[in-house]
Each structure stands twice: as C-alpha cells, then as structure tokens.
Amino acid sequence: MIEVQHLSKRYGPVTAVDDISFTVERGEILGFLGPNGAGKTTTMRVLTGYMPPSAGKAIVAGYDVFERPIEAKRRTGYLPETPPLYPDMTVRDYLTFVARIKGVPRNTRKARIDEMMRKTRIDDVANRPCGKLSKGYRQRVGLAQALMHNPEVLILDEPTAGLDPKQIIETRELIKGLAGDHTIILSTHILPEVSQTCQRVVIINRGKVVAVDTPDNLTSRLRGSETMYLQVDAQGTDAAAVLQRVSGVTRVAVADTKQQIVGYEVDSEAGRDVRRELAAAVVGRGWGLLEMRPMRMSLEEIFLHVTTEDAAAPEAAAEVAHE
Amino acid sequence: MNNVLAIAHKELKSYFSTPIAYIVIGFFALLFGYFFYAMLIIFNQQSLQLGGLEGQNNVDINQQLIRPLFLNASVILLFVLPLITMRTYSEEKRSGTIELLLTSPVTDIEIILGKFLGAMALYAAMIAITMIHMGLLFSYGNPEWKVVVTGYIGLLLMGGCFISVGLLISSLTKNQIVSGMITFAVFLLLWVVNWIASFTGPTTQSVLNYLSITDHFDDFTKGILDTKHLVYYFSVMSFGLFLTARSVDTERWKG
C-alpha cells in the first residue's frame, strides 16, 4: 500500500531523511518511532505530497506521490502535527470546506460530515469556531479532516499529542478501529502507544531507519540474554551459589534484600528457559520461592538502545535493521 | 473549477468572519465618501461660476467630477488592497493550514486562483459601495453612463493587478506585517514610478510610463477602452499569478 524507496530529503546542507526504505501492507498500522528531529515529520510530509523528496521515491496507494500527486492525495488523509484549522471558521464550516476540496460529492457531503463528527465525537462543538476549541477537540477535528474523504491511507503525525489520558485511549481505539479498511502510519515518540496500537514499528534516528519489526520481536530480539527476577526466602543462607549452579545460568546478582527475603536477578543463555530448574533448585532446598518473573526489556529501553547505540556501534544497529 | 470556487468561498468567508472585510470596506467607504463630498462642492461652485459666465456646455460632470473621483479611488486602493492580500498566504503558512491545502487533491494553480477570486470578490464588494454615489449623480444629473462603466472596468482590472502582486508578496513570507508593508511599498512604487518620467530620456520615459499600473487607468476614466491597456492589465495579472505559483512551488522544495 505504501512503498518508500531510498527516500532522502535535504534542507540545504542538512540531511533530514537519509536513504530510508520501508513498506506498509494494506490494512496495517505502522508505528513510526523516533526522537524529536529524527525525520518523522519530514518523511510524512513527503508521503503526503506536501514536499517533494530530494532523492528516492514514495508510492502511496499505487501512485507515485511526486509523479501523480493528485491521484495519491485523493487516497491519502493526513493529520499534521498541528491540526490545520482555520481559527475563525466553525467546525461545521471547516469540515464542509475540507469535504469540498477533498472531492466528497455534493449529495453525500452533509451525511459524510455528520458521520465523521459522530465518529470523532465532535458533534457537540459543531457550531463553535475552531480557534476556541481545546487541544483535544482540535486534534479530533483534525482527525475528522483526515478521514473526510475515506482515504485508503492515513498518515497521522502524533495523533495523541496533547490529549488527556481518557482522550488518548479513545483516540487509540478509534485508530485501531480504522485499521483493516485503512492503511495507517502513525508517528509518535510515546512508546507504549506503539506497542498498543501498531502491528509493526519503524524506528528512525537521525534520518536513518535503525529498526523495523513487530513490537514483540523487537523486544525479544534485542535481549541478548533472558533475565529473571527471583525472590527467595532462603532462611539466612545464600541462595546465589545454588542458583549459579543451575545449568544455563550465566550470572546471578542480588537486586534487593528485605531481612531474610532476597531478590535476585538471574541471567541465562538466550533462548533457554531455566524457570523450571530454578524453581526446583529453590523449592528442593526447602526455601520459599516468593516471586519469579521474567524481566523484559521495555520498548523504552529498546528505543534508547537503538537510538543511542546507533552512533556508537553502527554494525549492531545494522544487525537489528532489515534482515 | 469546483476547487477554485471552494477556496474562493472559504477566502471570502474568512474575510467576513474577521474584522478585515468590515475595516477595509468601512474605511474605503469613509474616504471615498469624503472625496465625493469635497469634489461635489468644488464642482458645484465651478458650475455656478462657469454657468453664469458662458452657458451650460462648459461643465462636464464626467470630466470634472466622475473622473477625478475614479482617480482618487485608485489612490485609496494603494492603501487598502495590501490589507486584503497581506494575509492570503502568510496566514496559512504561519498557522500551518497551508499543509491542508498542499496535501489535498487540489493543484497549486487552483489554490492561487481561488485566493485571487476570493480577494477580487471582496474588492468588488468594496467598490460596489461607490455605486451609491454614482447613483446619486445619475438621479440628479445626467452623466454619460459609458464613461462610468469603463471607469469601473478599469478599477476592477487595476485592482486585479494589485491583488496578484499582493498575493505574490504574501506567498513569500509567513509574517503578515512584513507582507503588508512590502506590498504597500511596491504598490506605492508602481504608482509613482513615472513621476520622474518627464526628466528622463524618451526611451526611459516610455518604459516608466508603461510600468505605472495607475497610469494605464487614466484612459479608462476618460471612457476609452484601449486594448493596449487591457493587454497590459491582463499580462500583469497573469504574470503576478504565475510568479505566485513559482514561489509556492519553490517553498515546497525548500520545505
């Protein structure tokens, strides 16, 4: 549905996007992740035909955005970082204008506008000027704008920025509900958003793609070893030596101590599940096994890992990127 | 065409939902009304004196009242039109709404023509006010109507040129004040550019006279519809709009 091939964008001497390539399948939600200034917005602007690329090309819904911009734009909905609202227009007038320039036929226009206002829950502000709306409403009017012509492709630049937690959840649900019929790219620097809404993640940093994968795969692939947290009541004896002897365990460290109860971090070889052996070893001694849970690397850690390692160890990052 | 009209409609609506339309039309009406009143007094005085001396035929309402009125209106335009055009692009760029226009399935030309038509509609509404004054003259006197019509055609065309130049300048900056100020300076320059014409050589003189947008208006007020001036006005308008399109496209590449 969306194909980005060796796309680069330079602003004078500054390279904002440097030779990135990725594809998005029909009906998929792709998370576009990166620190501020990584080139997310620039990439999205190229995809929506707002600006031409310096090199490479982007194909959206089967049309090259540079060669056939009108065709591509007819099939793309775009919510920029700041919703593009005219402060003096009422929400209804604004959406009517949007519907007109996006080519919604006159006879279905009103019904479509009403439908979009219901869907994005902005019908209660229909007659208020856009400039007087709260951030949450503005964002939703922007979303209604992007959805107006029922585009195949939706490009959302930080759709949940500035919303309160309830609105964030509502917006995420709305976006999830749109997947299937629509192909969606959404950018964010909020990591839980990606694991909750997206099927795949592209992480970019300094204009380069540093990782493309599902959130789950990213989590497990970046773990060099499995880490387990164990809380053991060893009645005053040192459990570390025992745990160390379990086959597959590479390292045992004391994480915390509460009187007799000691928490351990246990590393084991990657891909080896040592939970049963650890439990048997502890229980076999007559100690109390109070807690045992895997310590997952959170997306935050992965994110920091890929975006900071990138500069230091490019080969490590390359390994994570495309296979 | 539907896109052009949609954008023109939006532009016109936004003029009237902000104070701009009211201020522009109000002040134009005030100034024009003042000029009308002042010239009517002068004209009455003259016609009384001349009428007493040599008879009716020496006073001509078209030449001595309507023509100076049109010329004065053209000067008011220099001050008022920058207010109409200064926000057209600048405001869209500043507020980010340009992103909506440039990512919608409309071409740059459609956007520009839409904005041009929107500004022209407001401008037409503004000069329509003066028809009240003209109506008064027609009900109490008997001016030549054809001269009045050519005068209005001239006003519309000249305004169109100013608006296309204003659009171009607005497309160059995010800042409305900068846009308005430069537009005003350029308009003023286009008005006075031929003031030094008589002190220069014959070639320079004709070039300078040709450049002055307001100079071409003169014949219209005399009731002359010369293709030379029509060609000039339409060329300036198209050139202004063409350069605006180039400027919008360049901005696009710069990002």
How would the blueprint of this fold be written?
The complex is a heterodimer of chains A (323) and B (255).
Chain A lengths: L1 E10 L2 E11 L4 E5 L6 H8 L7 E6 L2 E2 L4 H6 L1 E4 L11 H11 L4 H14 L15 H13 L5 E5 L7 H14 L4 E6 L2 H7 L2 E6 L2 E6 L1 H8 L3 E8 L6 H6 L3 E10 L2 E8 L6 H10 L3 E7 L4 H14 L1 H7 L3
Parallel strand pairs in A: 3-8, 3-9, 6-7, 7-8
Antiparallel strand pairs in A: 1-2, 1-4, 4-5, 9-10, 11-13, 11-14, 12-13
Helix pairs in contact in A: 3-4, 4-5, 11-12
Chain B lengths: L1 H16 L1 H36 L6 H25 L4 H6 L2 H5 L5 H21 L1 H11 L4 H26 L5 H17 L9 H10 L5 H5 L5 H28 L1
Helix pairs in contact in B: 1-6, 2-3, 2-6, 3-8, 3-9, 6-8, 6-12, 8-9, 8-12
Care to give the gist of this entry?
Chain A has 323 residues and is α/β, with parallel strands linked by helices.
Keywords:
heterodimer; A: 323 residues; alpha/beta; Alpha-Beta Plaits; 2 domains; 12 helices; 14 strands; B: mainly alpha
